[in-house]
Amino acid sequence: MSRELLAQTIDPSxxxxxxxxxxxxxxxxxxxxxxxxxxxxxxxxxxxxxxxxFSHERRIPMTFRAAGTSLSGQAVTDGVxxxxxxxxxxxxxxxxxxxxxxxxxxxxxxxxxxxxPFRARIGPDPASINACMMGGILAxxxxxxxxxxxxxxxxxxxxxxxxxxxxxxxDTAAPDADESFRAREPRLAEGLLRxxxxxxxxxxxxxxxxxxxxxxxxxxYSLNAFLDFERPLDIFRHLLIGSEGTLGFIAEAVxxxxxxxxxxxxxxxxxxxxxxxxxxxxxxxxxxxxxxELMDRASLRTVEHLSTKPRTTAAAGVxxxxxxxxxxxxxxxxxxxxxxxAGLLAEFQCADESDRPTLAARADAxxxxxxxxxxxxxTHDPMEQxxxxxxxxxxxxxxxxxxxxxxxxxxxxxxxxxERLADAVLDLEALFVKHGYDNAIxxxxxxxxxxxxxxxxxxxxxxxxDQYARLMxxxxxxxxxxxxxxxxxxxxxxxxxxxxxETEWGAEAYGLMKRVKELADPDNLLNPGVIVNPDPLxxxxxxxxxxAVEEEVDKCIECGFCEVHCPSRDLTLTPRQRIVVRREMxxxxxxxxxxxxxxxxxxxxxxxxLCATACPVGIDTGALTKRLRRERHSIAAQGLxxxxxSHFGLVERGARLALRSGFRDLPRPVRHRPPPTESAGAxxxxxxxCISRVFGxxxxxxxxxxxxxxxxxxxxxxxxxxxxxxxxxxxxxLTGTCCxxxxxxxxxxxxxxxxxxxxxxxxxxxxxxxxxxxxxxxSPCAYSLRTCREHLTPEHxxxxxxxxxxxxxxxxxxxxxxxxxxTRPLASVALHPVCSLIKMGLVAELKSIAAACSxxxxxxxxxxxxxxxxxRGYLVPELTASATRQEAAEVRAGNFDGHxxxxxxCEIGLTRATGSVYRSYLYLLEGATRP
Length: 931
What we know:
5-stranded antiparallel β-sheet; 43 helices; 7-stranded antiparallel β-sheet; 4 domains; Uridine Diphospho-n-acetylenolpyruvylglucosamine Reductase, domain 3; alpha/beta
């Protein structure tokens, strides 16, 4: 497609037609792949209307995409892909938290964070809520673990603003909306009324529809809208829910919220077999259980490794807390369960703490008569509850993490009558054995009869595709013919079930669905092939092959959970897209991809590792970036890096000289050496990072709180420690000691290893062979040193295992703050938790320090990686500008007396972005405790 054609309608900078851009958007979280002719980053309803005109004039199909976390292939196309995430992120809480107004690019979890102060949340609670966006939640009629049918998107919808393929834009909340809809779309309005009359004229069809929607069901269009509503507009706005972007575009929605029930009582119940587990569902549900998650023996087997005792590596004091056997003994029993065993994760919830005893009594009474191999053990502890939920949430990724290279992970959901659930699970598992899927697992929302199954599958050859086709044919027969269930409960119909909609619903109901599609989209240009598809083999077309690439990312299942954390997501590529492009480069050799990849994937990657915190299989795409950067370096460049690492003092002196150059955007150099300290009587070793030893304040930022003109971070730390009565020791001859981050982030692995080995050796001596903890004042440096063990020599590994390396946030929170008196608190402060602090799990400690030093401590809802990434902020300033845009807007809209973080380079980036001076949180602590 000619880019110029679309550029006549849309700003050319938001029309992407390069191969690398089209490949990046060719995949969603499903097993399907289609390369679009163009990707348009749409902005505003007027552009959507223009795109509809373009689609009709050129006869080119069009598909809308928000997060692209679709599991059923709804967000891919070989036409025009319209991305509605980037410029559609507005959300507003209304009516005191009883409603929320959202655009399609708002992440579900973000909406819930906005509602949290009102003790409310949106009704749908999908497992992907921290990645999926409201556009997909509405278009797929999402539900989840506690949502059931009553609180799904359909039943919590208050109003919509939508755009039809004809270009008509309707706000259903407008007083004259129904009249306007009838006047502007008479054929559609009258057609909907005719369909409603036909349905009401058939008592059998009415009862069929009512029965189908008493349980979860997202197969096909929401025919219940014809029974639930009379006006054409009300019918159509509810048909849009679950329509998967095939009837129109949802530009905005207002949803009624539901109470957020903070009081929870949770337990993992283990049963001898599935029959016993399923027999417990009804009494537990009647007792008020909000969540009942069924797990078969195969699924429990995949997470047995999570049931070990807590383990702590002495190395740097890093603690990996898994399960406490005294608190959750059921978890420790998983490896010993018999082959037919099953589990139920049960959770009871209520709104008020005063009702907790009643809640617990009700739950205990419900399980008292169950025949369990071990007594039921429930817990009130939020941390223990989170650990129990790790079992449930670990099922999908546990399969993905062990799949063979080149295979895809497929997750499907079906619905059975609850009273026949045990038989259905056994029949489903028998199908997996029949078709050779030995690694399949079954789990799901037992309270609603909604089961998920996960299999791994190669689509790299025809026999594998045929195997999958045979399995799906048998699954359809099992669900529809034997159990009269639903082929989809919450993931949407998609390409994988579109050929079987008629099988489930019957010819009459399916005919109505086809007429709905024809009324709204008569030219069949809007996301064609999804829901209504005459091709009986559509589910095995456009399947995605996954060629092996680098080992760091081969396990990627392209789910998209990582994308919300990526600082380059609005500039170049996300972690998922980097991997998608790498796989395309493995499929073919194309100079266009080779030419564009370095800037799009490597130069603009912050390599911050936050993607790994959201990835179901723990992939750090930054590791791939570092590998590819390493491969770009010549032998001479690697040699120079090793020279600089071994003579890092020269780097420090050179940096000081550069800072004296006087450029406005560079920090001032620290003018004074660290003051002398004594090792005798010291309670900790203080290691000022090289950036703290070199970087002072930004030019022109002025002095804060009456401090001296030069009040370096080192001086601040020593001042606060002395005020707390804690003696710390700064080792002499610090110059040239480095955590290695400047080398590892650029792929200079040998230089990095040289730097960290030397530093660990020095820390061993400074700490008196590990007796004293070592406190590092820059979070990225602390994280680097705490995680460097695999890069050390055997001798240094032994030393490392006895060292306690602490981020200064941990030391300040645990050791300094309790000994200090808050004398001068600020009114309100803004915090920026840096990536390394998040990965070390110290955000709560930073906020606790700030809360003690102020009356209000705020972490912006959109806070994330700033993209400065050491020197990226200087080399690729557009990365930081893009990464901080939303956070900066939030900060500028607030009224803060101070802005704080725990990394000097990130503070520079945030100062640039917001226009407000960011400094180390230690300045806040010093100022608030000053006599």
